[in-house]
Amino acid sequence: AAAGAAAKGSYEGGIGDEMATFTPVVSSILEYRDSMLAGGQLQPLEVYRRPDGQQVAVVWPAGMIPAFFPNFVGEVWIQPGRDASQGQIYRHKAQGGLPGPGSVALVLGAGNQLPVVALDILHMLFAEDRVVLAKMNPVNDYYGPLLRQAFAPLVQRGCLEFVYGGADVGAYCCQHELVDAVHLTGSEATYNSIMFGSPQPSGSVRLNKRVTAELGNVTPYIIVPGPWSQADVEYHATSVASGLAQNAGHNCIAAELVITDASWPLRQAFLDALARCLDNLQCRAPWYPGSAERIAAFKRRFPSAQALGRPVAGKAQAHDHIPAQPWLLATGAGGPLAS
Q1: 272: which of 20, 37, 86, 150 is 20 to 30 A away, CA to CA?
Q2: Mapped to the 3 state alphabet, what secondary structure does the chain carry?
Q3: 106 confidence band (pLDDT: 50, 70, 90)
Q4: Rounded to an integer, what distance in angstroms lies between the CA atom of residue 238 and that of residue 15?
Q5: What pLDDT is stored for residue 252 in this prediction?
């Protein structure tokens, strides 16, 4: 947490902003333990069928994370025509099946969030039954030695190792004959470079391996209209603002596009509340590479966007980053959007 705060900057929550990101790692380790004890088949809270017959498993709230997200529900919608099932690897072994010849998975670590790197490693190890070579992103490779220390038992048993470097190292690892599967969390351009050899998809796929990816995007937050109370308006405006502010907005699920019903009587009240929430936040230093260019592009596209946030002397500035920037909110027929 101290390393993250030093690299990214410190804001209202101080080091607590970084410490909170460890919660999903701890929670997931507990869930992996429970899953293995249950043979990979933890019982969902409920399984029901939609009117069209599709099965839905209710899996959340469960564990420790829901304490931070009251009144939220999580469901897994099973593929239409398929029955709900889980734990294939564990069932196979329980039935006497051999684990197979063994394989190596390359995890190309996310540059924005430590928990993503940690959980991608754990998923490959315990859900896909592979040993892992983790290649750290140069943006946050200072986390590498700390992760190696945290996962020391796995390293000592030869199940996990870390490597460092730029795109050339990543490309070498992807093509290495001992690597059977690749998982990355990153940009579309990175994925295309791995699969096609260029930032844009062109020609035939050049990597004949199993490749999975979680890519950056513009995440829409859909506001469902209704007879909300003022407390509802304030709560959800705070939730959206928090979804943008956490990690200075450098998250795959950051709130960048808010979709509202133009005829909703409370639409303007919600947008006003959102603007107040953003204006009460400290301005933050965009620390991810390319941030300055994206901010400039947003301003060109939305020249009338509101500049919000509180500049705080001596804070919101990390080493070697561009100065702290205001939160930008553009509303109208094509909005609201935030940056």
Answers
A1: 20
A2: CHHHHHHHCCCCCCCHHHHHHHHHHHHHHHHHHHHHHCCCCCCCCEEEECCCCCEEEEEECCCCHHHHCCCCCEEEECCCCCCCCCCHHHHHHHCCCCCCCCCEEEEECCCCCHHHHHHHHHHHHHHCCCEEEEECCHHHHHHHHHHHHHCHHHHHCCCEEEECCCHHHHHHHHHCCCEEEEEEEECHHHHHHHHHCCCCCCCCCCCCCEEEEEECCCEEEECCCCCCCHHHHHHHHHHHHHHHHHHHHCCCCCEEEEECCCCCCCHHHHHHHHHHHHHHCECECCCCCCHHHHHHHHHHHCCCCEEECECCCCCCCCCCCCCCECEEEECCCCCCEEC
A3: very high
A4: 21
A5: 84
- Model confidence at 309: pLDDT above 70: yes
What is the per-residue pLDDT across 169-178, written as a single tens digit (0 to 9) for each?
999 999 999 9
For 162-199, the pLDDT digits (tens) are 999 999 999 999 999 999 999 999 888 899 999 998 88
φ, ψ of residue 264 in degrees (nearest 5): -70, 125
CA gap 270, 296 in Å, rounded? 27
Q: Output the average pLDDT for the chain.
A: 88
